[in-house]
């Protein structure tokens, strides 16, 4: 490797964060609490070196060779691909006679440890080294000053040897969790965190604390430990995916509905469909999805709330048969379990659909389910804003379903996200002649003009229908709308159940 070359880490997500990998022939710190994934990532780093034909060495102070082999086997790997150097018992390393030395035993043990490491490196001449872990060296040092001198000596030993070194630290021996002096010694620092939530699977995230000379992607990046290594989801930065705004309209196949949005939602815009439960929010989005699939456009639905089987059965009952579009691959419905998925993984799934399947329309049902995936609302809004900006740059039509609390009367929402949506469609119940009916209105449309009228919405076996403007309608924005006109304009030609 040349002085300015880069050592790929063996993890595509991390390499993307690091803008290609780690600058070669430097010393790096990989820190994190036990169980955060350090050993797995370190093994990926060495295996990538082996793949590239480089000699690799794993120096283990904390685990036996057998324990390391078990970790590797869980991912389908073998540690026979590279050299592993482990320490035997204290008696084997030091010799029984050494215990009677006038030197303190811990001084002799640390000296022997460093010498053994140096001898092994001289013998193998590796291009990649993992040192696991620094916590044992802290214990051997007994004194913080001596420990830091030994780490500095290790750095000086590897300098000029064309070796990229990762020091693993589980932070169990540091006074305040992180060792700031150690951070300053290393060329780069990568931190892994494991967070336990009140409910659901543990969440893991990665942060590059520093990397000299590299404009890496800062901030937290969610990741999972899966068979085959760490699956890292780089934080989405929408401005990196800038695209030209086309402005073409996506029609629903219903002229009256399209008329309310002056022809339909623009490509590259997001439409928020809100209203109480049962008003037809999901079905309205399915009308647009069905029309897009009929045009041959790939679409994806991310379903948080409803089961896929129930969704398809209900859609078919409303004359929206999606089964053949699923069979052809034009439509994909992903069932999302918010208790098991981090927001970073969800965004990665959306990106995968857009970039690999060239999806032109996306529906997220619902935002309340997405809220359950992240307890911190402010972070949720920021991530959703970034996701919608990304989809806008890609020219994707996005539908966001947001249920409101309550069925009738004044209603509210737990998530104020309407300001980042380009269009807002409001659905409401109203009463007329002793019947519960539905009303639809458009509150805003950044993509162009929109109707300010309120129309009746009917969803039955004939499908989705939009009636004429209800001119004698009042109170829709109060949450208690009331129709005071005659029954003639209402959609009665196909009674319920007909």
From TrEMBL:
Gene3D superfamilies: P-loop containing nucleotide triphosphate hydrolases (3.40.50.300). Its EC number is 2.7.11.1. The keyword Kinase applies. Keywords: Hydrolase, Kinase, Phosphoprotein, Repeat, Transferase. It holds the Pfam family ATPase. GO terms for molecular function: ATP binding; hydrolase activity; protein serine/threonine kinase activity. This is non-specific serine/threonine protein kinase. It comes from Croceibacterium mercuriale.
């Amino acid at each position: 490797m040349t002085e300015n070359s880069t050592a790929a880490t063996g993890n595509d997500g991390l390499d993307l964060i690091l803008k290609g990998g780690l600058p070669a022939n430097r010393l790096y710190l990989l820190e994190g609490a036990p169980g955060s994934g350090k050993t797995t990532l370190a093994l990926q780093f060495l295996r990538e070196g082996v793949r590239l034909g480089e000699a690799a060495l794993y120096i283990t102070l904390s685990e036996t060779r057998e324990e390391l082999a078990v970790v590797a086997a869980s991912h389908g790997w073998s540690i026979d691909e590279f050299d592993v150097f482990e320490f035997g018992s204290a008696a084997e390393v030091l010799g029984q006679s050494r215990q009677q030395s006038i030197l303190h035993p811990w001084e002799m043990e640390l000296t022997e440890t460093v010498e053994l490491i140096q001898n092994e490196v001289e013998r193998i001449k590796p291009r990649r080294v993992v040192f696991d872990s620094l916590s044992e060296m802290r214990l051997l040092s007994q004194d913080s000053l001596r420990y830091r001198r030994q780490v500095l000596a290790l750095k000086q030993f590897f300098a000029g040897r064309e070796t990229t070194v990762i020091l693993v630290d589980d932070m169990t021996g540091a006074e305040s969790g992180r060792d700031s002096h150690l951070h300053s010694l290393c060329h780069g620092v990568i931190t892994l965190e494991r967070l336990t939530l009140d409910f659901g699977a543990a969440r893991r995230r990665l942060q590059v604390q520093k990397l000299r000379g590299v404009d890496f992607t800062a901030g937290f990046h969610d990741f999972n430990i899966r068979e085959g290594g760490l699956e890292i989801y780089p934080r989405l930065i929408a401005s990196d995916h800038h695209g030209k705004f086309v402005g073409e309209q996506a029609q629903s196949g219903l002229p009256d509905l399209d008329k309310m949005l002056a022809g339909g939602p623009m490509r590259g815009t997001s439409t928020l469909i809100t209203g109480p439960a049962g008003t037809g929010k999901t079905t309205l989005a399915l009308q647009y999805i069905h029309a897009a699939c009929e045009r041959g456009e790939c679409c994806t639905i991310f379903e948080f709330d409803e089961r896929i089987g129930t969704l398809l059965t209900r859609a078919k009952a409303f004359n929206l048969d999606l089964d053949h579009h699923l069979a052809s691959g034009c439509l994909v419905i992903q069932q999302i379990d918010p208790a098991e998925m981090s927001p970073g993984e969800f965004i990665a799934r959306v990106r995968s659909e857009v970039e690999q399947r060239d999806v032109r329309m996306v529906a997220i049902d619902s935002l309340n389910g997405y809220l359950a995936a992240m307890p911190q609302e402010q972070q949720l809004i920021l991530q959703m804003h970034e996701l919608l900006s990304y989809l806008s740059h890609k020219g994707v039509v996005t539908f966001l379903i947001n249920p409101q609390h309550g069925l009738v009367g004044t209603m509210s929402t737990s998530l104020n996200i309407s300001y980042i949506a380009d269009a807002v469609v409001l659905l409401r119940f109203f009463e007329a002649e002793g019947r519960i009916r539905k009303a639809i209105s458009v509150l805003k449309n950044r993509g162009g003009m929109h109707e300010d009228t309120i129309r009746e919405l009917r969803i039955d076996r004939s499908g989705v229908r939009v009636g004429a403007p209800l001119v004698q309608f009042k109170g829709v924005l109060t949450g208690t709308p009331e129709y005071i006109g005659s029954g003639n304009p209402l959609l009665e030609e196909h009674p319920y159940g007909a």
